Amino acid sequence: MGANVEIYTWSRCPFCYRAKALLQDKGIEFSEYxxxxxxxxxxxxxxxxxxxxxxxxxxxxxxxxxxxxxxxxLEANNQLDPLxx
Length: 85
Fold this sequence. Notes:
CATH superfamily: Glutaredoxin
Strand content: 15-25%
CATH class: Alpha Beta
Number of strands: 4
Radius of gyration: 12 Å
Structural class: alpha+beta
Shape: globular
Number of helices: 4
């Protein structure tokens, strides 16, 4: 069984599209929480993300990874695949 991947997004966020595209290209299933206009969901995300309110916010096995830049940095440094196993 693979990792539990969760991503908080907005429907029109280009960084969200980019982060999801990386996961999809790798064949990774993930749970997406589109929080457009849902302040309660955004608050929950912010608490989980140690105060970060930018989108996307990505979690792997309940560990906060960060956003789009962070997931691409992990990929570039060959550190993403071990987290996804």
